[in-house]
Amino acid sequence: MLKEGLSFTSKMNVTTEKTALAIGSGDLPILATPALLALMENAAMNAVVHELEDGQSTVGGEISSSHVKPTGLGKQVSATATLIKVEGRKLYFRVIAHEDGKLLGEGTHLRFVVDKVRFLSKLT
Q1: Which portions of the chain are predicted below pLDDT 70?
Q2: Residue 95, SS3?
Q3: Which residues are catalytic?
Q4: How much is the pTM?
Q5: Ramachandran angles phi, psi of 59, nearest 5°
Q6: What integer pLDDT is reported at residue 111 of this predicted model?
Q7: Which of 12, 14, 21, 62 has the most beta carbons within 10 angstroms of its beta carbon?
Q8: What is the DSSP string of 30-53?
Q9: Where would I find the beta strands (DSSP E) of 1-124?
């Protein structure tokens, strides 16, 4: 059952593939903001995945987050997503990321519950 308070923490190591230089979002070998946002989305997805009905999934609709500290290669980053509001198919999350106990970024994320088959049928 989808209810407020569901939470999950995802972790990743900063590898070359996750740097701004590799992704193209910048020209430095530091954690790329798109990689940080993907980790936050992953945490939100995993916070609710076990509460969905068979054939359902969630998809991201909006994310807004700060990214306040650079993170170098080899560091581990964690992102925690907590479900703060359920409004029909809309799921609202608070997301927060840390590196070595220091705030890396925080914000909000909106996901939608979808029927997998129906959703994928919309592809052209």
Answers
A1: none
A2: strand
A3: 33, 41, 67
A4: 0.96
A5: -130, 145
A6: 98
A7: 14
A8: BB-HHHHHHHHHHHHHHHHGGGSP
A9: 7-13, 56-65, 76-87, 90-99, 102-115
Strands 102-115, 76-87: pairing is: unpaired
pLDDT for the residue 118 = 96
Task: Supply the Cα-derived Rg of the chain in whole angstroms.
Answer: 15
- Amino acid 96: pLDDT: 98
Amino acid residing at 66: S
Query: What 3-state class would DSSP assign to 120?
Result: helix
27 burial via Cβ count (<10 Å: 0-12, 13-18, 19+): exposed
Cα separation of 24 and 32, whole Å? Answer: 9
pLDDT given at position 124: 77
Tell me the C-alpha distance between 63 and 117, whole Å: 24
